[in-house]
Write a structure and sequence with these properties.
It is built from 6 helices and 10 strands, in the order βαβαβαβαβββαβββα. By secondary structure, the protein is α/β, with parallel strands linked by helices. The strands form 2 sheets. It has an 8-stranded parallel beta barrel, surrounded by 6 helices. It starts with 14 loop residues before the first strand and ends in an 11-residue tail after the last helix.
Length: 228
């Protein structure tokens, strides 16, 4: 089943989510530099993991500017919903082996759900029709942690999916390759974390600015609706 489009509004470039935010300062800097969303990671093994109160403070700080996405892996419905409500999350991003039933339950609660699928992992791209998600984030699926693990992959494998679903690409993106990645995959949004960092969880303002400049140079030649 094709996913529901989220908004009728058009934009001139792919949207940008800066993930792995760990401070209000970084969140506001990303917002001021033009990002469309920031991501807060709720995965204890990640160096970018936040507790609920930290995430709430970040979400409230940027609420007037951009959206905050909570990133989870194999979490329960109740814990996800608790954090959606407590942390004032705009959306959730699921990076584990979550079931289609869990995603449907979240969808029924009017939660915007982004489901991660993997080129070299499970669930794979071919499983996309099983999920009633608002958008899909595609990446390589290699490495020790859920997520892109800063690993590049063949972003062009995502191109056809973007013709049918709201598409986000991630994994190995940085200022020096994001324009190429957009050109070969034609996504609706891009997601970056380590590619704009000075250290895990600490965003480098200059790298974020360079990343945003490269994305902004790419003028869309295809139609899509906003995700964030």
């Amino acid at each position: 089943m094709e996913n529901d489009r989220l908004s009728a509004g058009k934009i001139s470039r792919p949207q940008v989510k800066i993930c792995g935010i760990t401070s209000i300062t970084d969140a506001l800097a990303c917002a001021n530099l033009g990002a469309d969303a920031v991501g807060c990671v709720f995965y204890p093994k990640s160096p970018r993991h936040l507790d609920d109160n930290q995430a709430k403070e970040i979400s409230l700080a940027v609420a007037e500017k951009i959206q905050t996405v909570g990133v989870f892996a194999n979490e329960t419905f109740s814990r996800i919903m608790q954090r959606v409500e407590h942390c004032r999350l705009s959306a959730v991003q699921l990076h584990g082996q979550e079931s289609p039933e869990l995603i449907s339950r979240l969808h029924n609660e009017k939660v915007v759900v982004i489901k991660a699928l993997f080129a070299d992992g499970q669930p794979s791209f071919k499983d996309i029709s099983s999920y009633h998600a608002s958008a899909f984030l595609l990446e390589c699926g290699q490495g020790k942690l859920p997520g892109g693990n800063a690993l590049k992959w063949d972003w062009g494998l995502a191109k056809d999916i973007g013709n049918r679903y709201s598409l986000i690409i991630a994994g190995g993106l940085a200022p020096d390759n994001v324009s190429y990645a957009i050109g070969v995959s034609r996504p609706h949004a891009v997601d970056v974390s380590s590619g704009v960092e000075s250290s895990p969880g600490r965003k480098d303002r200059d790298k974020v600015a360079d990343f945003m400049a490269e994305v902004s140079r790419y003028k869309l030649k295809y139609d899509f609706n906003k995700i964030f």
